[in-house]
Specification:
This protein has 143 residues and is an alpha+beta fold. Helix content is 36%, strand content 27%. A 5-stranded antiparallel beta sheet has the order 1-2-3-4-5. It has a two-stranded parallel ribbon with strand order 6-7.
Length: 143
């Protein structure tokens, strides 16, 4: 895993994001409450940056009419942000991009990176880590 100090050519905005994300613990360490019943998982997540996220994850299996209508495959995850009253149906495979989380769940840039990591962790997918996101989006390009 890349260390924050190794990120070269970080923009001023990227340095600001870095300060917010630097002390973030691992995803599992930030989960303060988890309850799973009947295919639904409720999670309260506090990543250590002064924020609190509450999500409900519903695994949708064997409901082809529902998922087909929503444009997903028959095995999907409905992720509901209970604080911001938003939800999105994520496919069971593929990459979770912070930009998708930002657009679909109505989060700001920093939150979208943190939430993408949480969603990927819970539904066993991949997402940019905070370090990878900072490197890919907020580094100055050599001229």
């Amino acid at each position: 895993m890349m260390q924050y100090e190794e990120i070269e050519n970080l923009t001023a905005y990227g340095r600001g994001l870095l300060n917010e994300l630097r002390q973030k613990p691992t995803v599992e360490a930030g989960i303060v409450a988890r309850e799973t019943t009947m295919g639904r998982t409720f999670i309260e997540y506090q990543p250590g940056n002064g924020t609190r996220y509450v999500f409900l994850f519903v695994e949708i299996v064997g409901m082809p009419k529902l998922t087909e209508h929503a444009g997903a495959n028959p095995h999907s995850w409905l992720v509901m942000d209970t604080i911001h009253n938003s939800a999105y149906l994520f496919a069971a495979h593929g990459f979770i991009a912070p930009q998708l989380v930002k657009e679909k769940l109505g989060r700001n840039e920093v939150d979208s990176v943190v939430v993408a990591e949480l969603i990927a962790h819970v539904i066993d997918r991949s997402a940019f880590t905070c370090e990878e996101y900072l490197r890919s989006v907020h580094t100055e390009q050599d001229a």
